Amino acid sequence: MASSRVAGLRALDRAFFSRRPQRVARELLGKVLVRRTNTEFLTGRIVETEAYLGEDDPAAHAAAGNTARTSVLFGPPGHAYVYFIYGNHYCLNVSCEGNGGGVLIRALEPLQGIEYMARNRGIARAGARDLRKLTSGPGRLAQAFGITRARDNGCDLISKSSSLRIAKDGFRAGPIVVTPRIGITKAAEEPLRFVLEGNPFVSGGKLRAIS
């Protein structure tokens, strides 16, 4: 049975993702990532994103063109693009515009299904000190939500019937900090990382905001 938190969520529409990645990345802050399992729902509020601009962005996977690996980014907006990195973790992105653009989900504030997330992460107990370890960082949140390329790549993140989706609950995001993207070497100074100011679940160290 869906909890009241999940029952109160509203679906996003295709038009939300049919825009420039920069705008989608900013407006995804405060939205809710939902995973439906066989026994319960996992939910987390999106608190950090990065925009990748398509074929003209040297840091984007789409810079290599429309390939078997990147085809989701060139398909309908609002679908999951999942890739494996560093040989040990997955990253969740959502396609935008349909021309190679996408948004990387970098961090979540865990809301529901915390013990389930902890088991997925190999954490014995999800006490207050451990909460940040669950979903702070793209690899951590993918593991916590059981996200893999085989399971989720190409998933429609708008459909209510999907086991992985993004929805809204009326949350109003506060101040947003814009910084350069992190963990990349190409186009590293572009102001394309968006963070909910002061949220303790944001990944990385001290923010270097762009004025």
Order of helices and strands: HEHHEEEEEHHHHEEE
Helicity, in percent?
A: 10-25%
Known CATH architecture: Roll
- Shape summary: globular
CATH topology, what is it called? Answer: 3-methyladenine DNA Glycosylase, Chain A
Task: Characterize the biggest β-sheet.
Answer: 9 strands, antiparallel
Question: Count of helical segments?
Answer: 7
Approximately how much beta-strand content do the residues carry? 25-35%
Q: What structural class do the secondary elements suggest?
A: alpha+beta
Count structural domains: 1
Radius of gyration: 16 Å
Terminal Cα separation, in Å? 46 Å
**Total count of strands:** 9
pLDDT below 50 for ≥5 consecutive residues: which ranges? none
CATH superfamily: Methylpurine-DNA glycosylase (MPG)
> For this structure, what is the CATH class?
Alpha Beta
Compile the SSE list and pairings.
Blueprint: H1 4-7, E1 10-11, H2 14-17, H3 21-28, E2 32-36, E3 41-52, E4 80-85, E5 89-96, E6 101-112, H4 114-121, H5 131-135, H6 138-144, H7 149-152, E7 164-168, E8 176-179, E9 193-196
Antiparallel strand pairs: 1-7, 2-3, 2-7, 3-6, 3-9, 4-5, 5-6, 8-9
Describe, in plain words, how this protein is organized in 3D:
The structure is a single chain. The protein is an alpha+beta fold. It has a single domain, classed as Methylpurine-DNA glycosylase (MPG) (3-methyladenine DNA Glycosylase, Chain A, Roll). 19% of the residues lie in helices and 27% in strands. It contains 7 helices and 9 strands; from the N terminus they run αβααβββββααααβββ. Strands 1, 2, 3, 4, 5, 6, 7, 8 and 9 form a 9-stranded antiparallel beta sheet that branches. Strand 5 (89-96) and strand 6 (101-112) form a beta hairpin. The longest helix has 8 residues, at 21-28. The mean pLDDT is 92.
